[in-house]
Amino acid sequence: MNRTSEQNGIVPVPPAQHILDALTGPVAVLDQTGAIIAVNKAWRTFGEANQAREASSVGVNYLDVCDRATGGDAACARAAAAGIRSVLAGTGSFSLEYPCHSPTEKRWFQLRASRLDHEGAIYAVVAHHDITDRILVEQEWQGLLARAHRHQEQLKALAATCTRIAAAGLPEIIFREITEQARLIVGTHWASTHTVPYVLWPENPVIVSVSDKYREFPTSVIAQSGTGVYTHVVQTGQPVRLTAAELSRLPDLQGVRNAVSDLLVIEGLLAVPITGVQGGLLGVLMLSDKDHGAFTPDDEAILVHLAQIAAVAAENAVQTRAERESRERLWTTHEHASVGIGETNEHGKFVTVNKGLSSITGYSRHELLALSLFDLIPPDDVETEKALYKRQIAGDLKTYSLERRFIRKDGASAWLQMSSTAVFNSDGRFHYSVRVIQDIDQRKRFEQRQALLVRELHHRVRNTLAVVEALASAMARTTSAQDFNRTFSSRLATLAKTQTLLAEDYWQTALLREMLLCELQPFHNKRHQRFTLEGPEVNLTADLAIPLSMALHELTANAARYGALSVRRGCVAATWDVVTTDGRRALHLQWRERNGPPVDTPTHHGFGVTLLERVLQTQCQAQVRLAFDPAGLQVEIELPLMMHRLLPDY
């Protein structure tokens, strides 16, 4: 007895066409020649919607259609045909992602071809899956990554710009650097900075930076083109970000386009005010002709940040200059004062002295800085001075003044008037004492002579009175009253003249290469190469860069004070390389000085050597070798380059 499939518990399978139609994506079955033998409903719908019904219907050779494709889709079509043929030839499967854009939307699909063997015949099942959502997400993600990378590079450039302008010192250099970096960081073909007229600003108030595109273009035209923008920003006090169309519609900016006519491309414009810390306008920074697309809010934020950097740096430069001039005036006054001026620490040791103090004491400046105040005071007076100074250090006696003897360098004793005023830190601790010392030896000698004269006068007055008394007494005994008056008066006049003659006789101060440049660039000389840098690009992590930059600063400062950079022909060579040993990378840095003063091995080490030998070893696990070669200092530093290191506590 025959049983049906339902009776055997087997669910009947729907016809193959129904199964194909149930699939949501377009699917077609090809025979071994590439002809379409079956398609599903989604395939037919897609073909009708995209005017490809005849090319994708049953009976059409799909491979021939792919081979005949032209235009921008030809390459993908041929790749699809080749992949399907490989599947029909024996490869298990094939996959290809390709764009399939319509006039109204962007689309991407994934073609998947699978081999089907049935009753000795070979077929290829071709399915197309819509992957548009995934591709759009990936593109958005790639765009975000690119934007993040660009922001990272811009932040690095901003940091480098801050470092460079911090050492600029002059507003003109600061504005020139900011203008150049604004153009490079944002990516435009021209930039300009229009500064507010000011006595310390550059003589030319407009600074221009251009790319090679405008290298031969008259900068005066660019400078003129920004006049209207400058006026607009000055009036509004706000940033301006405009497209070319918006620029042409603003009445107060019509002069921008009229001034440059067709000579200069102005595809949009971005301008921001350069505002000082106190709110005063210092200038306007503007950009135009961007490399790619219109200016964005991110571009505006970067330009605002650069303008803030320029404002702070320029005002600091002006303030620093004013402070320097003030210090110079103070130092000139201090140095040429007719009195001696010196500063003493808590131990009474001189830390600064002026020329007047050297003149008074007979010691040179260098000799005085090796002495203390107590070395100039006679032993009998030292304890008194120490007691007063102790009270001043404690804050009980802020100022005191006295006259005392002191000992000159030649051993002679002289008198001086000395006042001492204490200077305390913000936390109330004693910092130093200002000593104002005046040579009063001549005055003292005069006072001594004056005292002697007074004593002599008293003595002579007493003697004179005695003489007068004796004279009167004697005359009274021997002279008549009539002769006494005449003779006594004449003798008194003679005595007065003698006293007159006796009185008259008595009145009588990311990249290693960039770190090195920051230290050595101030010594650049066009005629004579003061330094050379040679080595690969090395990025240092912050915990390595900070102590190493301190070490480089100490090396440069030492070279400037005592080494190769202290003389005209001296030079410094810095070379480095990265070596890998047992999988560990290390920086090998060499510092060599040449043509400087002869080098002697120091008898004691200062802070610089301590930093090199101890701090680098402790903080960076570095090995440092110092060679005090008479021909020039040589330093070798081997610094492990670790990808991750905990920043040490300083």
From TrEMBL:
<keyword id="KW-0716">Sensory transduction</keyword>
<dbReference type="InterPro" id="IPR013656">
    <property type="entry name" value="PAS_4"/>
</dbReference>
<dbReference type="Pfam" id="PF08448">
    <property type="entry name" value="PAS_4"/>
</dbReference>
<dbReference type="InterPro" id="IPR029016">
    <property type="entry name" value="GAF-like_dom_sf"/>
</dbReference>
<dbReference type="InterPro" id="IPR000014">
    <property type="entry name" value="PAS"/>
</dbReference>
<dbReference type="Pfam" id="PF07536">
    <property type="entry name" value="HWE_HK"/>
</dbReference>
<keyword id="KW-0808">Transferase</keyword>
<dbReference type="InterPro" id="IPR036890">
    <property type="entry name" value="HATPase_C_sf"/>
</dbReference>
<keyword id="KW-0288">FMN</keyword>
<dbReference type="InterPro" id="IPR035965">
    <property type="entry name" value="PAS-like_dom_sf"/>
</dbReference>
<keyword id="KW-0597">Phosphoprotein</keyword>
<dbReference type="InterPro" id="IPR001610">
    <property type="entry name" value="PAC"/>
</dbReference>
<keyword id="KW-0285">Flavoprotein</keyword>
<keyword id="KW-0600">Photoreceptor protein</keyword>
<keyword id="KW-0157">Chromophore</keyword>
<keyword id="KW-0843">Virulence</keyword>
<feature type="domain" description="PAC">
    <location>
        <begin position="400"/>
        <end position="452"/>
    </location>
</feature>
<keyword id="KW-0418">Kinase</keyword>
<dbReference type="InterPro" id="IPR003018">
    <property type="entry name" value="GAF"/>
</dbReference>
<dbReference type="GO" id="GO:0004673">
    <property type="term" value="F:protein histidine kinase activity"/>
</dbReference>
<dbReference type="InterPro" id="IPR000700">
    <property type="entry name" value="PAS-assoc_C"/>
</dbReference>
<dbReference type="Pfam" id="PF01590">
    <property type="entry name" value="GAF"/>
</dbReference>
<dbReference type="GO" id="GO:0009881">
    <property type="term" value="F:photoreceptor activity"/>
</dbReference>
<keyword id="KW-0067">ATP-binding</keyword>
<dbReference type="Pfam" id="PF13426">
    <property type="entry name" value="PAS_9"/>
</dbReference>
<dbReference type="InterPro" id="IPR011102">
    <property type="entry name" value="Sig_transdc_His_kinase_HWE"/>
</dbReference>
<keyword id="KW-0677">Repeat</keyword>
<protein>
    <recommendedName>
        <fullName>Blue-light-activated histidine kinase</fullName>
        <ecNumber>2.7.13.3</ecNumber>
    </recommendedName>
</protein>
<feature type="domain" description="PAS">
    <location>
        <begin position="326"/>
        <end position="396"/>
    </location>
</feature>
<keyword id="KW-0675">Receptor</keyword>
<keyword id="KW-0547">Nucleotide-binding</keyword>
<dbReference type="GO" id="GO:0005524">
    <property type="term" value="F:ATP binding"/>
</dbReference>
